């Protein structure tokens, strides 16, 4: 299926991604969004939406698609596109940031396959992979020589995103969530 055929077809009851020309239910890649996943997603959208109000950048939900190749359409949990608003489209234009909320069932795909696909997108400047089981985020910045990863841990961390004129405080993103103790926490 081509991306154009996919966009005509996609009026289904559940969200799909186009992977190598084949429609794949997004929920098949995960067991269903957990409360933590949903909370982190909403918190990211609220934080970015408030900071970006009045600018040319705006966050969107996973209802908006990102074309990562000629045969692949992904639906990141949060996408920030900058530039003119294009109405009546299913695709993000001038995408600067994507946020993938990695759940235990999706972390392998989010950190490998999707990450590499996102890196190929020509307008993307930042890729943020967030965890739901701990206040941890991995940010990839596009630089002239490639992508530079940066790890953020703990509720006191703040992720600066000058590419879109915003920042994300992990305390805000993980607001209203609690985390189980990790083995590494006990070693400190």
UniProtKB/TrEMBL annotation:
| Pfam families, per database record | Uma2
User: Which Gene Ontology molecular-function terms are recorded?
Assistant: endonuclease activity
Statement: the UniProt record of this protein carries the keyword Iron-sulfur: no
For this protein, the record's InterPro entries field holds: Nuclease_put_TT1808, Restrct_endonuc-II-like, Uma2
Domain annotation Putative restriction endonuclease: ranges: 3-164
Source superkingdom:
Bacteria
Q: Which UniProt keywords apply?
A: Endonuclease, Hydrolase, Nuclease
Query: What protein name does the entry list?
Result: Uma2 family endonuclease
